[in-house]
Amino acid sequence: MTYSNETIKFLKTFSNKYSYEYIVESLDKLKDLKVLIIGDGIIDEYHYCTPMGQAAKSPIIVNKYISHEVFVGGAFIIANHISGLCDKVHLVTLLGNEDSKEEFIVNKLNPNIISKFFYRNDGPTILKKRYIEPHRKIKLFEINYLNNNYINPSCESKINKYLKSTIPNYDIVLVSDFGHGLITKKLIKTIKLFSKTVCVNTQTNAANSGYNMITKYSKPNFVCLDERESRLALQNKFGTMHKVIKQLSKKLNADCVIITQGQQGSLSIKDNEIISTPIFSTNVVDTVGAGDAFFAFTAPCYTCGMPLDLISFIGNAVGALAVQIVGNKRPVEKNELLDFINSILME
Length: 347
Description:
- It is a single chain.
- By secondary structure, the chain is an alpha/beta fold.
- The protein has one domain: UDP-N-acetylmuramoyl-L-alanine:D-glutamate ligase (3-Layer(aba) Sandwich).
- It has 11 helices and 13 strands.
């Protein structure tokens, strides 16, 4: 691997503080953590096609279909990521009544995941189709199949009742909020009231157009966002990221906040201590799902009381592996994470 001098210096300092054996022991402690995930489950389709040229009678580019793949994304892939770390994982999510794709989803979830599906009558299971030029992995366009409105009161009441009785049985609740109608104000209130530890990721995407802000949540224990999502939440476009993370932490009254910054790595804050961690990726195939992988691994690490610099390091290592995977084709596995960590600590 080829890293910058700054990253090599960081890794040397880090390896002097934390041995590989200590990191292995720390991750092994996550095994007994009881995890509940509530969030938007998404089906991802990648349709590979190659441009043939402009249509004769319309100003559009005609593409030739080559092949396609189907993955589980959103809360589904987060559950798969965590299930490699923790033995007891429970997923609560929403499907569409018609063409729910439930059989496909169940077959794609790891065996130690307990699933509880609720159903909406006014929309499909969320499906996102991306059309991609296969050789350079360039995304040409995307089509979403979803109802972006909030679930109706009847469905909300059923989910709310279930969460009240279920949440107390778990050590940690992860909220994967894509802003696609599942996470209502009432459910947020219940999650806050009944949870021991609440970890939240709110995503900004084309479907919610910047309306799905982390500021919906008050006093979350752990928050994970990307730079754009954090700036939107504060309406702060040009401030330094150190200022942004301080403001966001204070506004949310969160115990710990991590902001992922792409090529700039990640920035973390806890107890007014800010830590910057560089990226460890040298080969980027696809960034889709990398943030979900980062969130899935760092939230349990936070819950078990790992030091902030170790949490951020593990998150960035997971991110480096996730960007080498096409979409959400598979989760990042614990053994490959440990192999990767061992290799970079020897740099």
